[in-house]
Amino acid sequence: MRWMWALFVPFVLGHGEPLRVMLDFYPNPNHVPLYVAQAQGLFRAAGVEVEIIAPSDPSDPTKLVAARAVDLALTPQANYLLARGAGLPLVAVGALIDGALGGLLALERSGITDLADLRGRRIGYALEPLEPVLWRTMLRHAGVEPAEVELVYVGMNTLFALLARRVDAIGAFRNYEVLAVEALGDQPRFFPQEEHGVPDTYELVLIAHPTFVRAHLPRVRLFVQALAEAIDFTLDHPAEALAMFEAAVPELAGEELTRRSFAATLPRYARGVRHDDVPRWEAMQAYLVAHGLIPHALPITDLITTEALP
User: Fold this and answer.
1) Where is coiled-coil annotated (predicted)?
2) Which pLDDT value is given to residue 162?
3) Percentage of the chain modeled with pLDDT above 90
4) What is the CATH number of the domain that holds 40?
5) Are 263 and 210 contained in the same domain?
6) Which of 54, 58, 2 has the alpha carbon at shortest distance from 27?
7) What's the pLDDT at 10?
8) Which of 10-14, 90-94, 288-292 has the lowest mean pLDDT?
9) Across the chain, what does the average pLDDT equal?
10) Residues 237, 298 within the same domain
């Protein structure tokens, strides 16, 4: 679990002024294709220099792209829509992770085998306002009313709160916390959010400032196309791809959790960097509007551009 402490890893490839690309979090297996593109020189071969930056705060990427402090960033689709709802000038140019990774995680030793078993229990969360809405949606889907559970803010170390039995369930990722629980010798019980009333989502989309995209479309297109090529390689040659990632992020090399997390993420990399499933955008926007998280739905053509896709 050394990757929990890898907070900042910058890279600069190629020559001249680089594209500044901010991750959504510290480097982890979600980002393997980016490191494959670096290791194979795909960005450089496309004529694009790339600087990858990890944020000091997961809320930074949308704000820093809107302020043009970075050129591109990864962020969850829902976070992106919340930022657009708050008026930030952003546009989605692609996706890295196609499909949801989140859900609710409990321990089997708590006697929880169904979401309805959380009635009368405590559920920990880290991020407002989205997480409480997601977990209440899932519980309602199982027939549990909000007044029948207690939502508890536990800070960013949700896994510790679960293992210490401060709470009975937490928001978690199926490709990390679930595997970490198993690695620690416990048995997880995971409930995927998309199976319990929450619309499916792009876990990570690639965003930029619209003005930057208009001014630098050829560079953005070359970056996206090189990333698409790296995703193809990752899917076709997973062992080699993981080795490239571990060479770039040695703090995580040789970790069983890294290997298992990568294997769990592999089916979710967005082939072709595609992010243009319109019904998915419409459903997530309608969900966020219905729960008062954004004021109104925006036209899909205002939210995404497909001009950079291969």
Assistant:
1) none
2) 97
3) 92
4) 3.40.190.10
5) yes
6) 54
7) 37
8) 10-14
9) 94
10) yes
